[in-house]
Amino acid sequence: MTAGVIPDFSPAEDILLSEEAVAGAAMASAEAAAVLGDHVRPEHFRKASYGLIFGAAQALAERGDPVDPIAVMAELTRGGDLARAGGGPALHGCLAAGTAVPSPSWHAHRVAADFQRRDAAAALTTSLGLVTSPQFDPATGFEHIRKLVDDAVTPACDTGLRPMSTLVTDVIDALEHEAARGLPTGFADLDEGITGLAPGELVLVAARPSVGKSIITTQIAAHVSVDLGFPVLLSSLEMSAEEITLRLIAAEARVNLTSLLRRQVAESDWPRIGNAASKIGDSPLAIDDTPGASLAHIRSRLRGMARTEAARLLVVDYLGLLTGPKAENRQVAVSELSRGLKLIAREFAIPVLAAAQLNRGPEQRSDKRPMLSDLRESGAQEQDADVVILLHREDAYVRESPRAGEIDFDIAKNRQGPQFTITAAFQGHYARCMDMAPLGWSPSSALGNEGR
């Protein structure tokens, strides 16, 4: 039930008759009480006495006791509710109504629908009160309103539970017919180790500034959308949509990004730029560069895309710049943002790929390699994420390093598989990375070392 009082506007003329019939039918047997309980609950009844009778029948059924009119009367007496339920005459009237209808489940649906109508009205009334208050805070208020409305439109008795027989069938069907578990990232070794970006998962790409996390996350977004043709929402809080588009063109056309930024394009580059622009322009990639976007804003964008074609991937660059809820300190706020991104992944059944900032820990160590404990401001990021990819480039610290032009993907957490490290070629001048031949290691060789 949503916050606020459910309005008592006039019901359909015969809704109370349906309530009486459902309460009476539930008294017939434990089986009847269980079946009707799949559609309606005691608190859904407009008339409280019918809800009490229905609730007593359900309580008996849940305990495994016999359900009949005498047992229901005894249950109501035991709880001190017999008088409130209307006594013997009310039970007799319900029983007569229940036995007179051939399809009590149809009447249970009507009772549930009437409750949802009143519940939706309560949600809208409460929402109106929130937005008209001088203390209304959009950062948290719209998210609260969204939850009120979502709860109101959720089916009245939706438990979200599926029988194991259904679950097993669905899993076996996926094994037989689905080509891959998740969306490919475009990096072959990475995909082999994490089995792609799976729906419902939160994947963090973390690094120190200027190491390449924006390039990696943008490139993965482009691979899924431009190369594979799937809708992607890229929420960029650090760069404008124009800056990202220039990076996409540089990577796709293999044109120096600095030349594009300086508007110094060689004549020989224009055909490749034109082809890249056409390919990128035809893709279902959506870039949202709203500064300081909140989780509620991102949810709104995803719901808007779903009206035409739902997003298959959300990319956030980066987590630390999201506007969080008011909290006692920054650590709590970041924890809420991390948890919120994970909930978005579950709610929309899509993978969420988010860039994250590391603290100065790597710079204080001799080898400069990042660790999970370097995740900035909150350990909740490590806890909420299904996969954490730590990026490391030796030439970010030593320009003349023999490993210049290489970037390491250190998969420091992998809930469904091994921890491992791969190396890719970093082509910063093109704003992209490329696969390299594995250096004596394959993710398949470490599948027994699963990181939980």
Task: Give a structural overview.
Helix content is 46%, strand content 13%. It folds into two domains: 139 residues, Orthogonal Bundle (DNAb Helicase, Chain A); 272 residues, P-loop containing nucleotide triphosphate hydrolases (Rossmann fold, 3-Layer(aba) Sandwich), CATH 3.40.50. Helix 15 links the parallel strand 4 and strand 5. The protein has 16 helices and eleven strands.
In short:
The protein has 452 residues and is of the alpha/beta class. It folds into two domains: 139 residues, DNAb Helicase, Chain A (Orthogonal Bundle), CATH 1.10.860.10; 272 residues, Rossmann fold (3-Layer(aba) Sandwich). The protein is elongated, with a radius of gyration of 29 Å.
Q: For the report, how would you describe the main beta sheet?
A: 9 strands, mixed
- What is the total domain count? 2
Helix content: 40-55%
Chain-averaged pLDDT = 86
Strand order of the largest sheet: 3-2-4-5-1-6-7-9-10
Named at the architecture level, the CATH assignment of the largest domain is: 3-Layer(aba) Sandwich
Secondary-structure element series: HHHHHHHHHEHEHHHEHEHEHEEEEEE
- Would you give the CATH topology of the largest domain? Rossmann fold
Main traits of this protein?
two-stranded antiparallel ribbon; 452 residues; 11 strands; 16 helices; Rossmann fold; DNAb Helicase, Chain A; elongated; 2 domains
How is this fold's topology laid out?
Elements: H1 15-26, H2 30-37, H3 48-63, H4 69-78, H5 87-100, H6 104-131, H7 138-153, H8 164-177, H9 188-194, E1 202-207, H10 213-227, E2 232-236, H11 241-253, H12 257-261, H13 270-281, E3 285-288, H14 295-306, E4 313-317, H15 330-348, E5 352-357, H16 380-384, E6 387-392, E7 406-414, E8 417-418, E9 420-427, E10 432-435, E11 450-451
Helix pairs in contact: 1-3, 1-5, 1-6, 2-3, 3-4, 6-7, 10-11, 11-13
